[in-house]
Here is the input.
Amino acid sequence: MSVFEAFMLICFGASWPFAVLKTYKTKNVKGKSARFISLILAGYIFGIIHKLIFSFDIILLLYIFNGLLVSADLIMYFKYNSNA
Here is the structure.
């Protein structure tokens, strides 16, 4: 297990709950990009695949948690974006 990888995921993931909550409360996705959110989600998916194949450890849970938060943000983007 890499402590640095864990801290990276904790730092990256710290902002997602606030972003998801803000989108949920305001129903506003102004300033968000589905392409950007999808790219971040793809990164987490590749991290999960790497952990499953090469380096299975507890850090996998951080990838999954962050991926779920980003997925929720992407779902709300399409739900609340009138241009989508």
About this structure: The chain has four helices and no strands. The domain at 3-80 is CATH 1.20.1280 (Monooxygenase). The first helix runs from residue 3 to 14. The mean pLDDT is 93.
